[in-house]
Amino acid sequence: MAFSILASLLFVCYAYARAVPRAHIPLRDTSACLDVTRDVQQSWSMYSPYFPAATYVAPPASCQINQVHIIQRHGARFPTSGAAKRIQTAVAKLKAASNYTDPLLAFVTNYTYSLGQDSLVELGATQSSEAGQEAFTRYSSLVSADELPFVRASGSDRVVATANNWTAGFALASSNSITPVLSVIISEAGNDTLDDNMCPAAGDSDPQVNQWLAQFAPPMTARLNAGAPGANLTDTDTYNLLTLCPFETVATERRSEFCDIYEELQAEDAFAYNADLDKFYGTGYGQPLGPVQGVGYINELIARLTAQNVSDHTQTNSTLDSSPETFPLNRTLYADFSHDNQMVAIFSAMGLFNQSAPLDPTTPDPARTFLVKKIVPFSARMVVERLDCGGAQSVRLLVNDAVQPLAFCGADTSGVCTLDAFVESQAYARNDGEGDFEKCFAT
Ligand SMILES: *[C@@H]1O[C@H](CO)[C@@H](O)[C@H](O)[C@H]1NC(C)=O
Ligand SMILES: *[C@@H]1O[C@H](CO)[C@@H](O)[C@H](O)[C@H]1NC(C)=O
Ligand SMILES: *[C@@H]1O[C@H](CO)[C@@H](O)[C@H](O)[C@H]1NC(C)=O
Ligand SMILES: *[C@@H]1O[C@H](CO)[C@@H](O)[C@H](O)[C@H]1NC(C)=O
Ligand SMILES: *[C@@H]1O[C@H](CO)[C@@H](O)[C@H](O)[C@H]1NC(C)=O
Ligand SMILES: *[C@@H]1O[C@H](CO)[C@@H](O)[C@H](O)[C@H]1NC(C)=O
Ligand SMILES: *[C@@H]1O[C@H](CO)[C@@H](O)[C@H](O)[C@H]1NC(C)=O
Ligand SMILES: *[C@@H]1O[C@H](CO)[C@@H](O)[C@H](O)[C@H]1NC(C)=O
Ligand SMILES: *[C@@H]1O[C@H](CO)[C@@H](O)[C@H](O)[C@H]1NC(C)=O
């Protein structure tokens, strides 16, 4: 009985989401239909559906928003090709077990892996559209049919699809009176400020992630191997099987059977810390050549905020950025679409989510501020609002709707600092990474 009520509620949940034209329903929590608690979904970190990290609050009454800059991660996707291969290896080993002695694994007998690769999933498209609707709703006073948002995307298909779903959502929310288009797609094979593709000498987070894996995973691996004699899973296999909980759930919009394993193993905290280490040491503060990869975007942001030509000698494409067709300076709303690793590089070059001490690969600090679930879930976004506060040009910055303290430019308690102080604070970017960019190409 309880089950059938739940089942019919879920059915209504999906039917409602799919059938009712979205302009007529209030923005909803898309992830509420997945039959996995919000806390567990958020522990998926970079594989979590979008969640705001705070409730949006308007700037102080004395300030008027006069320009907005959005950089947003693509929506929920299938595993990348590399991850898909590792997952399939782990699944094959699990399926090769002679039998399953643990009821937790009984479903594997009939299980087949069937996810796609790399591309956006339906939930990711929906959340991207919702982000466009929200941007229109929040900033409609800045745009008109003659003053459209200016939209760029990094060249991979899922990022382009995200940008197009965002513009479609924006148009829908305006009842098609304001129809932005994706104007610039930047090739990921060339100079690209929206992808971390230009620093061959940068290291990766494998050492730190493997140290953490060796600490948290062995009891989980032992439990799985005990229940699947002959599977002979490694700790890496265990991690890849855990990722099936988020990947299958966001792809099918139904709870994955692997979420029973994820929850039974109480993987939430360990998985989230794995993500924090991965990003912190991937392109964040813990990677010597991580932050420099975010410099070009910050110089573009400064150009737009100050209506000055771009001054940068790192990742920018000067052909694109010197033309008003591909890099206008007279717009009120800019939206760029990118990837999590690139956004982490940008945040770290800027000084957001800084840590007084680096993350320890074996001992999570419960008070850490570098929490991937609040930084780059799917569809994560940074928004810089330029404000006129009684004649003083100012800025405030939000990541996933959480106002950032901006101590580095002397912000007040509402997170507002002057535009001059913000630009001043970005010396690392303005100085082209203070020598780090050249190190990207050192042999
Ligand atoms: C499962 O397989 C192992 C290895 O083949 C065997 O030793 C064990 O008896 C089996 N257990 C059950 C419950 O069938
Ligand atoms: C696997 O599928 C078969 C055929 O549908 C079914 O009889 C069996 O109960 C299933 N096994 C498990 C463990 O779900
Ligand atoms: C921005 O400048 C271009 C010329 O460079 C012009 O065509 C366009 O109308 C301007 N847009 C706005 C919103 O002022
Ligand atoms: C939205 O994303 C979906 C899934 O990737 C894609 O099939 C669709 O073409 C996108 N919509 C637009 C308007 O680009
Ligand atoms: C810069 O952008 C132009 C126009 O899209 C493109 O033709 C060129 O290949 C790009 N150059 C680099 C180095 O990325
Ligand atoms: C289990 O895998 C390890 C390598 O991961 C290998 O050294 C070992 O021989 C395997 N054991 C069995 C019983 O297949
Ligand atoms: C930007 O550079 C172009 C030439 O590339 C120049 O015509 C224009 O005046 C410059 N704009 C600003 C705001 O400096
Ligand atoms: C691409 O970036 C490199 C490295 O900063 C730079 O030397 C080159 O001029 C850039 N190309 C373009 C078209 O901006
Ligand atoms: C981050 O914090 C560390 C330690 O306090 C400091 O040395 C570093 O300059 C900060 N980085 C940025 C970009 O603010």
From TrEMBL:
InterPro entries: Acid_Pase_AS, His_Pase_clade-2, His_PPase_superfam, Histidine_acid_Pase_euk. CDD domains: HP_HAP_like (cd07061). GO terms for molecular function: acid phosphatase activity; inositol hexakisphosphate 3-phosphatase activity. Disulfide bonds join 63-389, 199-440, 245-259, 409-417. It holds the Pfam family His_Phos_2. It is found in: Secreted. SUPFAM superfamilies: Phosphoglycerate mutase-like. Keywords: Disulfide bond, Glycoprotein, Hydrolase, Secreted, Signal. Residues 1-17 form the signal peptide. Monomer. This is Phytase A.
